[in-house]
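Deviations from the work plan: none for this task. Representative record:
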Amino acid sequence: MTDSSRKPVRFALAQIDTCVGDLDGNADKVLSYVRRAADSADVVIFPEMTLTGYPIEDLAFRATFRKAAWEAADGLAKTLAQEGHGDLYVVVGTVGTDHASDNPRNRLVALHNGVVWAGYDKHFLPNYGVFDEFRIFSPGEKTLVLEIEGARIGVAICEDIWQDGGPVAQLASQHIDVLLTINGSPYEEGKTSTRLDLCVKRAREVAAPVIYLNQVGGQDDLVFDGASFVVNQSGTILERSAQFREDLSFWTLPVTSDPQTTDGSVSTLAPLMERTEEVYEACVLGLKDYITKNGFTGVVLGLSGGIDSALVAAMAADAVGGGNVWGISMPSRYSSDGSKDDAAQLAENIGAHYTVEPIENLFTAYQDQLHLQAVAAENLQARLRGVIVMAYSNSKGLLALATGNKSELACGYSTIYGDAVGGYAPIKDLLKTRVWDLAKWRNAKAAKEGNPEVIPLNSIVKPPSAELRPGQKDSDSLPDYALLDQVLAAYIEHAHGRADLLADGFDPQTVDTVMRLVDKAEWKRRQYPLGPKVTALAFGRDRRLPVTSRFSE
Amino acid sequence: MTDSSRKPVRFALAQIDTCVGDLDGNADKVLSYVRRAADSADVVIFPEMTLTGYPIEDLAFRATFRKAAWEAADGLAKTLAQEGHGDLYVVVGTVGTDHASDNPRNRLVALHNGVVWAGYDKHFLPNYGVFDEFRIFSPGEKTLVLEIEGARIGVAICEDIWQDGGPVAQLASQHIDVLLTINGSPYEEGKTSTRLDLCVKRAREVAAPVIYLNQVGGQDDLVFDGASFVVNQSGTILERSAQFREDLSFWTLPVTSDPQTTDGSVSTLAPLMERTEEVYEACVLGLKDYITKNGFTGVVLGLSGGIDSALVAAMAADAVGGGNVWGISMPSRYSSDGSKDDAAQLAENIGAHYTVEPIENLFTAYQDQLHLQAVAAENLQARLRGVIVMAYSNSKGLLALATGNKSELACGYSTIYGDAVGGYAPIKDLLKTRVWDLAKWRNAKAAKEGNPEVIPLNSIVKPPSAELRPGQKDSDSLPDYALLDQVLAAYIEHAHGRADLLADGFDPQTVDTVMRLVDKAEWKRRQYPLGPKVTALAFGRDRRLPVTSRFSE
């Protein structure tokens, strides 16, 4: 099909990293990307809720916030026109207000000729997993087709394409030339191919290519991976943006929309990372954005010589540079020489500040007074260390990092107010076996770049131990991680109950132990720092279970 | 209107305290209440989600949980019949499954003659404030009218009566003789009269009396106050159950439903508490149920001599008896003699265990090593105390209580991992001015009962101080509480932005200070223990704001 009244439409995909609540900063960033794109584009597209950042949660209810968002959109339209970009169509996301109900809306607006030229409100409001949109928004009812240069551009916002029916089904009969969806789609392992499959399905449904524009960056417990793309009905990827960083790329909608004729429109195809690299980069970006968006310049953490703190330190160095990382070794009478050496070596490898703060005198002072035994004495050591980490955090203005992994968090195998202190927990959604994978991957990457190992080999190969009593090993208290992590994945990510877990082939004793540990530790998890979700189901708002519960099946 | 085919129907209102996930325990409690009611009732009514407890949150997604809930309902029906109660109609709430979609449902079932005789699924699923029901349940579509002894009993579940339209509007044309609603309605100040007004409106809509049956008890951050009632179209209260405790009361639906003729059906009217007493009892019940349902036998907390810890200790003694309360005085060089005396006096007044654990040696040991200054040194003292409280908790198996109030929590005027440690925080939803009200009310109650004061007068009248440096007063860092609490109520409970607060008449400097403090402290609140919601908007799941946010208006 060739439509002689149409011209090719040049799209710029501005995959940016916004900050929630920073209306001025986000508008400025939109402006700078429009300037960069102006000569090569007719339409510049930004992610879901560009101006407000995403997700805004209950900020949606604050009338002053919605008013300021409106003013940001209106002011941006005027500034674009004043700068001579009024002929462009700039598509941004923002919060709107439904005038009938006064309810907040998740809105897409097109800015053109100095005004907010058109608007569309998200129909499907996700309210599962980490999402609470039905709580804060009322759903849109209308579809929107932008007519630009004779082309008909149907629009959607994120969840609109994940549900059957609704606006996409309506657009299917409206003869659109391209479907544009703007998204705030959080990363999780495996999601890249799910999104692509979905968009191919929608491309076929509307008989037109789909532009999938995603945001990038970290926001509290979510990481947006970008990885925007354009795909046609045949499943050919016509453009792909980078993962885990801002990007500006271009794609032209040809005059013919015949899928067999790409009309020179295949643009840059950023390479896709492999799974382990993706997860590592997700953690690093989540951490980096938490640090910078919250105004920190550096981080502090305890370095035990173990794999968890080593991996977190390596991620922190990759996020903000080793010179902004403070590592503290806090040996006790139970710390092995090997552990102390491994901690020092790690700090040296990443170029971190390194201090040794023994806890022996502090432990003695407490024990002279309290005479604690067994687990209470073990927890005491962890808490004395927590006090030191927070002292560094308070006196140097550093963000404290908690180094617990998902297996630990699941089983409560950590000391609340001890090793659990911190403002951010970069690996809280990584099972222990995944922690090993990522550490090995990071070293392999260093080797590939001709650099020495980052994480001391000894930290990777030695049997895990909290070193809170002589000869202690994690395996004294927990099933082997290879087994434990399988049970945890089934119980947590797949919500398998006891009967399901037995049907999965796990032995009753392991199942009962793991379920009991996980259920008992919910109160600790509630008080654990935020950290990036990288799996299909993370602890936190993704999995909302009561603390008080007697169900054990 | 007199219907000759009808007989009077005797209702038993079983206002019980259930436990989430305790299917067997809840079913046993239903059984025991049915036995008590059997001779005097035709219909025995229990609260929303009786068998499962409420709210079940994401437990709804676990297939084994829904299966067990079905078995509990089915087993209960059989047991009732075996015990000779098959002729009774027993109305309980539970979780169901929609067979078409396999989605969980919030269900009411009537047990009769040994079977699950009838069912109704909640239509309106609240998804605001503390509620996440749209997340976990799919909505019901049908109405249900139970025909019992010739009477037509329309049913609804909680939110169904809070929204216009829906099942109540449909029942209005179905000639019902009474509207029965079963509820899990959390307490907040002022809600008692709101519920009554609502039910009178619904009674007029359906032209029949309304039975409002609420659950009672604490579940994590929610307190259910009970206070069930029956009201007719004229607004006459025909029955009212007790507040904040289990109750079994009776009301008979007369053969005539003429509102002028109550037909001897006015039953017991439990007295209503006044507001301050309500709030105090809500905190005590929330604490008591958290302790007992989580298997603790006692609590431990730091006693500073200040009003907050004194009030929490008094509540704990009222909840579980002073003999199950461990109070620790942890004086530093900055603690006044008055404070130490007040702490000791409080412990004596409530019959608590009392220990003195000075922190001077611990502080010296740390400072010899770390040499902290200013706020870092102040936080250190609070954290050394947190370690002691947790050491008592771990070694004696006690629940640690955090004693922070809502004003402190709002402004971040507390030390995370210091005074903020604990599994439960009984007064976290009380503004400081309300803390004083409750302390005075508790002493007045003691006086009325001829007992000496519970909370030392000095703790009530002295200027609040954290005593972390010489001569420190809260008013050095915060506006006066009388003003602060007004700004906080407007900013937090009414979501007023900066412009609104200025329009409210607050001065710009106070507004900017308070907003900045509140916004900056979000990360600390995320890690704060659970505590009972008693206001219209509590911190926690009731108010979901991003940690990372730059909006300041």
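The domain at 9-256 of chain B is CATH 3.60.110.10 (Nitrilase/N-carbamoyl-D-aminoacid amidohydrolase).
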